[in-house]
Specification:
By secondary structure, chain A is of the alpha+beta class. Chain A contains 9 helices and 20 strands. Chain A has 2 domains: 4-224, P-loop containing nucleotide triphosphate hydrolases (Rossmann fold, 3-Layer(aba) Sandwich); 237-348, RNA polymerase II/Efflux pump adaptor protein, barrel-sandwich hybrid domain (OB fold (Dihydrolipoamide Acetyltransferase, E2P)), CATH 2.40.50. The longest helix of chain B is centred in the first third of the chain and has 34 residues, at 53-86. The chains are: A alpha+beta (350), B mainly alpha (259). The interface between A and B is medium-sized, with 27 and 19 residues.
C-alpha cells in the first residue's frame, strides 16, 4: 500500500514547455526517495506542489489515500527544509524548533520537552538558547531539520538542503540525515542535483528530466541498468552511444563497429538503440576482440585516485577511467587498442 | 579633494540648517516681537503657548491627525505593496503609476480638489477628512519603503512558517512583520512626520475646528508677527527630530543587540 501518490501531476507556467509534465509515482510509508535531475527539470516544482506552495495545473496528490489538493499548506502536516534553511532570525533555536508546536497550541511543558528531545537527536542540545545566525551552516541545517521533524509530519520534504555546505560537511550531513531518518522513520522526499548524494542516501531515486520522471528505481539498478539514454548519461560517468541493431543481434555503432551486448536485443534488426558502457569497464588491450576499438587519446583528467582518459574512436567520443598507476604510461596523442566485456555493455531499447 | 568636499558639505549643511538656528533662539527670546538676535532669553513665549487654547488645540490636532494618518496609511499600503511585489496581473504597471501620482501632482492642486470634493461629502473641517487627504499624500513614500523591504524578503520564511502550521495571516504577523520591522517602522515614521508638518492641504481643509499646527502658524503670521510662532516652529521641528532620533537609536540598539 503506497503512502504518498502523485497521479499525472502537471504544472503549466504558461511557457512553451510544461514545468512538470505528467509525473506519477507512489512512495511507501517510511521510504526515503530522492528526486534527482538537472536544474529546471521540474523536481523542485514537484516538491513545492506537494508542500502546497504551488498549485498543480492538473493531476492529484494523495497522502494515505486522501487527496490533499484542497488542503492549504498550513494544514498539510508536511515538514519542509529549504536550501537556505529559512530559520526565523528573530527567534532563538528553541523558539524556532518550538514554532510548529506553538502553532498547534500544545501545552508549554510538552513543547519544552519535545524541543529538548529533538535537539538532542540532531546533536544541538546545548544550543537551545542560541540565535540561529550565530551557528555554523551545518548547525543551522540541523536546526531546520529539527524544526521540520518536531511536529511528527506525515511527510518530510528536503529541497537541496546541503547545497550551501562544503564537501566534507556535506558528506557528514548525508550520514546524519540518513541516521535521523532511520531513527524517526518519516516518509522523506529529498531533492538534489548531486547524483553521488542521491546514490548514498536514497532507498529509491526518481530521475527527472524536462518535467518528466525518466526512471524511478533503487540506486544500484539506476546505475547498472539505466532505462533511458538520459539516465545513462546523468547518473555517473558513462559512454552513451547510438547504434542500430544488426542481423545477428550485435549493435552497429558508428566509428566502433559491431558491439556485443550482455542481453540479446528484444527489438528487431534495424531498430535504433542506445548502448551504455561505463568508463571503468573499458581497458587497454593487446588483442583485437569483437568489443574493441582503436582509441585516440585527447586528454587526461586527474581525479587523484583515478584518471579519466578522454578521446575518440573514429568520430565517436569515448571516456575511459583507469587507476592512476595504469594511466601514467599514456599521454595525449597516443593511439592504442581498448576493449570491454559484452556483459558490461548495457542496452537501452526505447 | 576630500577637504574641498568637506568644506562644501559643511557650508551646505549650515545654509540648510540656518533657519533653525534663528527660530530656536527667537523662541526663547524675551522680546515682544519677532526680532533677531534676541535682546534676552527666557521661556515666557513657551508659557504663553501652553496657556493659549488656540495654540495647544492645533498641537493636539496635529498629533491626532498624524497618528490617524499613519495607521490609515499602513493599512492601505501594506496590502498594496504585497499585491504589487508578489503578484503579476493585468494593469499592474498602471496601478503602480496611480499609487505614485500623489508624488507628482502639485499639493496645491490636490488641496483645491479636496476642498471642493470634501465639502460635498461634509468632510471639511473634520479629523477624518484631513486624515484621508494626508493618507493619500503619505502613501507613495510609505508604499515604496515597504515594497523595497518586501522585494528583498525571502519568501521561504513565509513558506516555512506555513508548512509548520501557521495560517497565512498568522505567518505575516509572527514572521514577515517582525523580520521586516525596520521597513515598517521607517514607513510609518515617514508617514507620521509628513502628516505632522503638511501645510498646503491642511490650510484648505482643516478649517478652524481641526486646525493643525502649521495651519495655525500660517494664520498667526498673516495677522501679526507674534513671537509665539517661533515656539510653534521649534516644537514642530522638535517633534520631527525626536521621532527620527528615536528611530535611529532603535536601529542602532537593534544592531548592537544582534551582534
Amino acid at each position: 500500500m503506497s503512502y504518498l501518490t502523485l497521479q499525472h501531476l502537471r504544472k503549466d507556467y504558461g511557457s512553451a514547455v510544461l514545468a512538470v509534465n505528467d509525473v506519477s509515482l507512489s512512495i511507501e510509508k517510511g521510504e526515503f526517495v530522492t528526486f534527482l535531475g538537472p536544474s529546471g527539470s521540474g523536481k523542485t516544482t514537484t516538491l513545492m506542489m506537494i508542500a502546497g506552495f504551488e498549485c498543480a495545473s492538473g493531476g492529484e496528490i494523495m497522502v494515505a489515500g486522501r487527496s490533499i489538493d484542497p488542503v492549504p499548506p498550513h494544514k498539510r502536516n508536511i515538514g519542509v527544509v529549504f536550501q537556505n534553511y529559512a530559520l526565523f532570525p528573530h527567534m532563538s533555536v528553541a523558539a524556532n524548533v518550538g514554532f510548529p508546536l506553538r502553532m498547534r497550541r500544545l501545552p508549554k511543558a510538552e513543547i519544552a520537552s519535545r524541543v529538548g528531545t529533538i535537539l538532542d537527536i540532531v546533536g544541538l542540545g546545548a544550543f537551545a538558547k542560541a540565535e540561529p545566525r550565530r551557528l555554523s551552516g551545518g548547525q543551522q541545517q540541523r536546526v531546520a531539520l529539527a524544526r521540520a521533524l518536531v511536529f511528527e509530519p506525515d511527510v518530510l520534504l528536503l529541497d537541496e538542503p546541503l547545497g550551501a555546505l562544503d564537501k566534507n560537511l556535506r558528506e557528514q550531513m548525508q550520514l546524519e540525515i540518513r541516521r535521523i531518518h532511520n531513527t524517526l522513520g518519516v516518509t522523506t522526499i529529498y531533492v538534489t542535483h548531486d547524483q553521488t548524494e542521491a546514490m548514498t542516501m536514497s532507498d529509491r531515486i526518481a530521475v527527472f528530466n524536462a518535467g518528466r520522471i525518466e526512471q524511478l528505481d533503487v540506486p544500484l539498478k539506476l546505475y547498472h541498468e539505466p532505462a533511458t539514454a538520459f539516465v545513462a548519461g546523468f547518473v555517473g560517468d558513462n559512454n552513451v552511444l547510438d547504434g542500430v541493431v544488426a542481423e545477428d543481434g550485435f549493435i552497429a555503432v558508428p566509428g566502433i563497429g559491431l558491439v556485443a551486448t550482455g542481453e540479446r536485443p528484444s527489438v528487431p534488426a534495424g531498430a535504433q538503440v542506445t548502448v551504455a558502457i561505463r568508463p571503468e569497464s573499458i581497458r587497454p588491450s593487446t588483442k583485437a576482440h569483437v568489443n574493441a576499438a582503436e582509441f585516440a587519446l585527447g586528454g587526461l583528467v586527474n581525479y587523484g585516485d583515478s584518471v579519466m582518459l578522454i578521446g575518440t574512436v573514429g568520430p565517436t567520443p569515448l571516456k575511459i577511467r583507469l587507476p592512476a598507476r595504469e594511466a601514467a604510461r599514456f599521454s595525449p596523442g597516443d593511439t592504442f587498442t581498448v576493449s570491454w566485456l559484452a556483459a558490461q555493455v548495457h542496452l537501452i531499447t526505447n | 579633494m576630500r577637504t574641498t568636499f568637506l568644506i562644501v558639505g559643511v557650508l551646505v549643511a549650515i545654509f540648510v540648517a540656518l533657519p533653525i538656528f534663528i527660530v530656536l533662539p527667537m523662541s526663547f527670546s524675551t522680546s515682544l516681537s519677532l526680532e533677531f538676535p534676541p535682546p534676552g532669553y527666557g521661556i515666557r513665549h513657551y508659557v504663553q503657548f501652553f496657556h493659549d487654547p488656540t495654540w495647544v488645540g492645533p498641537l493636539v490636532n496635529s498629533f491626532v491627525i498624524a497618528a490617524g494618518t499613519t495607521v490609515l496609511t499602513m493599512l492601505l499600503v501594506t496590502p498594496a505593496a504585497f499585491a504589487m511585489v508578489r503578484h503579476d496581473f493585468r494593469g499592474r504597471g498602471f496601478i503602480n503609476l496611480l499609487l505614485l501620482t500623489p508624488l507628482i501632482v502639485p499639493h496645491i492642486v490636490m488641496a483645491v480638489g479636496y476642498f471642493t470634493y470634501f465639502a460635498r461629502l461634509h468632510l471639511l473641517q473634520t479629523y477624518v477628512g484631513v486624515m484621508l487627504a494626508h493618507a493619500c499624500l503619505t502613501s507613495p513614500v510609505a508604499f515604496l519603503t515597504i515594497a523595497a523591504g518586501l522585494k528583498g524578503f525571502d519568501r521561504n520564511y513565509e513558506r516555512a512558517a506555513q508548512s509548520l502550521g501557521a495560517p497565512p495571516l498568522v505567518a505575516f504577523f509572527v514572521v514577515t512583520f517582525p523580520i521586516l520591522r525596520i521597513a515598517f517602522l521607517v514607513s510609518g515614521l515617514l508617514a507620521f512626520v509628513h502628516s505632522f508638518d503638511e501645510t498646503t492641504v491642511a490650510l484648505f481643509i482643516s478649517g478652524r475646528d481641526v486646525a493643525t499646527l502649521p495651519k495655525r502658524m500660517f494664520d498667526a503670521i498673516r495677522l501679526q508677527a507674534d513671537p509665539v510662532i517661533s515656539v510653534a516652529s521649534s516644537l514642530l521641528f522638535g517633534v520631527v527630530l525626536i521621532v527620527f532620533a528615536a528611530a535611529m537609536l532603535r536601529q542602532y540598539l537593534g544592531q548592537r543587540g544582534a551582534r
